[in-house]
Design a protein that fits this description.
alpha/beta, Glutaredoxin, binds FE2/S2 (inorganic) cluster
């Protein structure tokens, strides 16, 4: 579960400003005159990424999240009531409204992943990092979050770390990924068993080939 949006939490900074004004303008100008409020989602994403950039240089490190001051700033830029921005930001799960670790690990435990032993992946993470679901390591590097289906069930069990998917996981490959991230190395994304997209592990197949093999054509 995610940490809830707390307007007056002590970690909320007093101010927020975008560093890249040109990018902000470019995003707003993508929308027709009078429809600038449609820029709310890409601006929330931009704010979250800016916070992540700051967090990567901080000590202890932290990941991308959207402070209330950023939402208020976006409301002002788009001439909309702050509550409307809060509503959008709190509806979508990809926006973090409270601090998270540099590596936000979203563990899918919905039925297809669960049937493929997602429990072992959760255990590998909690054992390796020494934290539970919904918690962040003391060094600010990792947050564990349980999520619903991430739409990659064909390669279950899978997880998402920041923007990337890691699929076909085992306890061993999960721990290897965590060890690499602890050293800020980049683990291979996608299937950890080497398959391409959702292709069969044995390589590409066609119905005709399979039918020939079965002797029905
Ligand atoms: S159930 Fe895990 S990705 Fe769909």
């Amino acid at each position: 579960m995610k940490k809830p949006f707390e307007l007056h939490a002590e970690y909320q900074p007093a101010n927020f400003a975008f560093r890249n004004g040109t990018k902000v303008e470019k995003i707003i100008n993508l929308y027709p005159k009078g429809r600038q409020q449609s820029a709310v989602m890409p601006l929330l994403d931009l704010a979250q990424r800016q916070v992540a950039e700051d967090g990567a240089k901080a000590s202890p490190v932290y990941g991308g999240w959207i402070p209330r001051a950023a939402m208020d700033h976006i409301a002002e830029l788009l001439d909309m009531p702050p509550i409307k921005v809060y509503e959008v930001a709190s509806f979508y799960s990809m926006y973090n409204l409270a601090p998270v670790g540099k590596y936000l690990i979203q563990l899918c435990t919905t039925t297809p992943c669960w049937l493929c032993n997602a429990d072992a992946i959760v255990k590998a993470c909690t054992d390796h990092l020494g934290i539970g679901l919904g918690e962040t390591t003391k060094d600010g590097k990792f947050t564990l979050m349980e999520v619903e289906c991430l739409g990659a069930c064909v390669n279950a069990p899978m997880i998402q770390i920041n923007d990337d998917y890691y699929e076909d996981l085992t306890s061993e490959s999960m721990k290897e990924i965590l060890a690499m991230l602890a050293d800020d190395l980049k683990p291979k994304i996608g299937s950890q068993k080497g398959r391409k997209a959702s292709m069969a592990l044995t390589g590409p197949t066609t119905l005709e080939k399979e039918a020939k093999k079965a002797g029905v054509v």
